[in-house]
C-alpha cells in the first residue's frame, strides 16, 4: 500500500472533521453576538488548550481532543427564582452550582446581555444555528460530489464481450454504442438490461453505432437467472442479505463506465435519504450499539450499516485512501461523501431533545415560549425565563451515557472495523 495516499486521506478527514466542528460552533456564535450576548470562549476540541488568542471579548482556541467543541454563551441559566430556598442533596447542589457558575460570568452592568434574556425566537436561532450549519455543509459537499465531480454511471457503450456469449455470436464488438433493441431506442444501459430480460431465446435485432455508422445485428439472449433490481438499478436483497434472483436473459456484454454529473434534484434527494436513514438509526440506537458490540466480539461479521465512532469513520477513510484500484478522484469522492454523512449525523444527533445537546436547549426555549404565549392569552403577568438549571442532573446523566456509548463504539471500531470496500 502506498503510504502517501493514506496520509493525505487521514489529513483530509481530520481537517474535514475539525472544520465541521468549527463551523458548527460558528453557527451558534454569530447569531448570539448579533443578538448582543457576550461570547467569552470559542473552542474547537476539548481538554488542554493547545493554542488560543483573545480578540475583542472572545477567546478563540484549539484544544487537544478533537471530538467536539463549544462556545461559552454568558448567562445560559437564570439565577434562582426570588424567594426560593436552598435545598439539600447531591442533585440540588448540582443545580445550585450550575446557576452560580452561570451568573458569575455576567459582568456588572451587562445583565441585559445574558443569554436567558433573549426572546424565544432568538434563542431558537442561536441553538439551531449549529446543527443547521452542519446541514448546509452536507448539502455543499454533496453538491460538489454530484454536480462537480460526478458519479460513475454505466453508458450505452459496450466495454467487453464475453466469449461464447450471445453478443459474441451476433458479432457485437467492444466500443459499439447500443442505439436500439428490437427497434426501441436505448437511452440507458439499465433500460437495455430490462428489455433483454424479457426476450430470452428470441431472435431480436440489435442496432449499434460502429465507426460512425449504424449496424444492425441479430442477437438471441441466453436464458439465465439475474439479480432483481429496483427502479434505481440497485440489486434487491432478501432477509438473508443475498440478492434476489429472477428468471431473465443475458447478452454477455458489459458497459463502459463514465463519471457523469447528476441533476441538481439529486442533492436534496440524497440529503433526505441520509436524514431519514440517520433518524431511523437514532431511533434504534440502543439496538444498533448492542449489535455493533456483539459483532465486534463474536464471529458474526460487522454489518456495513453499523453505527461508527469517529475512529470508525477514520478507518473507512484510510481504506478508501489506500485502495489501489481507486483513482484519486474516486478516493476524494468517497471521503467527501463520508464527511457529508458525518455532518448529517451531527445535524440529526444534536437535535435530540436532551441537554446538553442543542435539541435540549431548543425544547427549553419552546417550553418557555409556550408559557409566555399562554400568559398573554390569559392576560396574566409574563413568566420569567425557564429554570433550565433544574435539568442539569439530566444533562450530566446524558453526558455520561454519551461518553460510554462513544467508548463502546471506539473499541468496536478498533477490534472489528466496518469495511465498505
UniProtKB/TrEMBL annotation:
Protein name as catalogued: RIP metalloprotease RseP
Keyword Hydrolase appears in the UniProt entry: yes
SMART domains: PDZ
Stated family: Belongs to the peptidase M50B family.
Cofactors: Zn(2+)
Molecular function per GO: metallopeptidase activity
Organism the protein comes from: Isoptericola halotolerans
SUPFAM superfamilies recorded: PDZ domain-like (SSF50156)
Lineage, uppermost ranks: Bacteria, Bacillati, Actinomycetota, Actinomycetes, Micrococcales
Membrane topology: Multi-pass membrane protein
Amino acid at each position: 500500500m502506498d503510504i502517501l495516499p493514506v496520509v493525505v486521506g487521514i489529513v483530509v478527514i481530520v481537517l474535514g472533521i475539525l472544520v465541521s466542528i468549527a463551523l458548527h460552533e460558528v453557527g451558534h456564535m454569530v447569531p448570539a453576538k448579533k443578538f448582543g450576548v457576550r461570547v467569552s470562549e470559542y473552542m474547537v476540541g476539548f481538554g488542554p488548550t493547545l493554542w488560543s488568542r483573545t480578540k475583542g471579548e472572545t477567546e478563540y482556541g484549539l484544544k487537544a481532543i478533537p471530538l467536539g467543541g463549544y462556545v461559552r454563551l454568558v448567562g445560559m441559566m437564570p439565577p434562582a427564582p426570588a424567594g426560593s430556598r436552598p435545598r439539600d442533596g447531591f442533585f440540588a447542589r448540582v443545580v445550585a452550582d450550575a446557576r452560580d457558575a452561570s451568573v458569575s460570568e455576567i459582568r456588572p452592568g451587562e445583565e441585559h446581555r445574558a443569554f436567558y434574556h433573549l426572546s424565544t425566537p432568538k434563542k431558537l436561532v442561536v441553538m439551531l444555528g449549529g446543527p443547521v450549519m452542519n446541514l448546509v455543509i452536507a448539502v455543499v459537499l454533496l453538491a460538489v460530489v454530484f454536480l462537480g465531480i460526478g458519479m460513475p454511471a454505466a453508458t450505452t457503450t459496450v466495454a467487453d464481450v464475453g466469449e461464447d456469449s450471445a453478443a459474441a455470436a451476433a458479432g457485437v464488438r467492444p466500443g459499439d454504442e447500443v442505439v436500439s433493441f428490437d427497434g426501441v431506442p436505448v437511452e440507458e444501459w439499465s433500460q437495455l438490461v430490462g428489455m433483454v430480460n424479457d426476450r430470452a431465446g428470441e431472435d431480436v435485432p440489435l442496432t449499434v453505432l460502429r465507426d460512425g455508422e449504424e449496424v444492425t445485428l441479430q442477437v438471441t439472449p441466453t436464458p439465465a437467472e439475474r439479480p432483481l433490481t429496483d427502479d434505481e438499478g440497485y440489486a434487491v436483497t432478501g432477509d438473508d442479505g443475498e440478492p434476489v434472483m429472477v428468471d431473465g436473459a443475458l447478452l454477455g456484454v458489459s458497459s463502459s463506465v463514465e463519471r457523469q454529473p447528476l441533476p441538481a434534484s439529486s442533492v436534496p434527494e440524497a440529503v433526505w435519504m441520509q436524514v431519514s436513514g440517520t433518524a431511523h438509526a437514532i431511533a434504534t440506537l440502543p439496538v444498533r450499539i448492542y449489535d455493533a458490540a456483539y459483532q465486534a466480539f463474536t464471529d458474526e461479521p460487522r454489518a456495513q450499516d453499523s453505527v461508527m465512532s469517529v475512529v470508525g469513520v477514520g478507518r473507512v477513510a484510510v481504506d478508501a485512501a489506500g485502495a489501489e484500484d481507486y483513482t484519486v478522484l474516486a478516493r476524494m469522492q468517497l471521503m467527501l461523501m463520508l464527511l457529508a454523512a458525518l455532518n448529517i449525523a451531527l445535524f440529526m444527533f444534536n437535535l435530540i431533545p436532551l441537554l446538553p445537546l442543542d435539541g435540549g436547549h431548543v425544547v427549553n426555549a419552546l417550553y418557555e415560549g409556550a408559557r409566555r404565549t399562554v400568559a398573554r392569552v390569559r392576560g396574566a403577568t409574563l413568566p420569567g425565563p425557564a429554570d433550565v438549571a433544574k435539568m442539569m442532573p439530566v444533562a450530566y446523566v446524558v453526558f455520561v451515557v454519551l461518553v460510554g456509548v462513544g467508548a463502546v463504539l471506539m473499541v468496536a471500531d478498533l477490534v472489528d472495523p466496518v469495511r465498505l470496500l
